[in-house]
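Give me the 3D structure for Glycosyltransferase.
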Amino acid sequence: MQDVKFSVLMSVYAREKSQYLRECLASMVDQICPPTEIVVVEDGPISKELSDEIDVFREKLNIISVKLDANVGLSAALNEGLKHCRYELVARMDTDDVSLPARFLRQIDYMQRFPQVAVSSAWIEERNQDMTLVRSIRRLPEHHSDIVSFAKRRSPVSHPAVMFRKSAVLAVGGYPSVFPEDYGLWSVMIVRGYEFANIQEVLLLMRTGEDFITRRGINFLKGELKLLAFQRKIGFLTNSDYVMNYIIRCAVRLPPDSVKKALYKLAR
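Predicted structure for Glycosyltransferase (268 residues):
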């Protein structure tokens, strides 16, 4: 594998925990194929504890801080950060997750071998908050045709484990102002003909809270329904797809918490 320079794009905001950020950045240090730079967007003022953790790793990881005066939300923060990424290949990373040591080695190799692929991700292992318990593994289809079919019902790649080509994301206007913003972006890119892939291997540990499932209630549903309208508007969903997804989302988000948990396990 040729020596390839690439960026990692993160966003941090005031309410995040410094311990989780430390573990996240430590996983960047442990990469077999380390990033050339890490662009960290500070989405509004952050705590001294978070700033101190960033400074501890700044030189070792070549961290570039992009400081925003106010919290603008993930979509706008990532779009701003993307402007500061100097390299064509950009990996996403959430500041409370942990990448396995071979993550970037696998993804860089894949993106080199398949230059037609604009977006790739991998399987992720969903764990509890202290990372001691495996809740589930999110397995995703490997090939583009299967990914497109999968995308009609659920997000087709795992955002925290994504690597994409910057030029392709910029060509479609970056992250749209919808929620979830990543699903909106993938929908636009699929409509525009960009190719996707998923590496069939767990490359990231995702931290999930005790209320990860139950907090996805009515407010989360409102965002999803706006996303469905966006997907129909851009031609990603047909009218029948839209109606079916509308029914499914309501059926999943509105029941009691015990039912939500059971449905989530079945979906995984």
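The domain at 7-207 is CATH 3.90.550.10 (Spore Coat Polysaccharide Biosynthesis Protein SpsA; Chain A). Let me know if you want a second pass.
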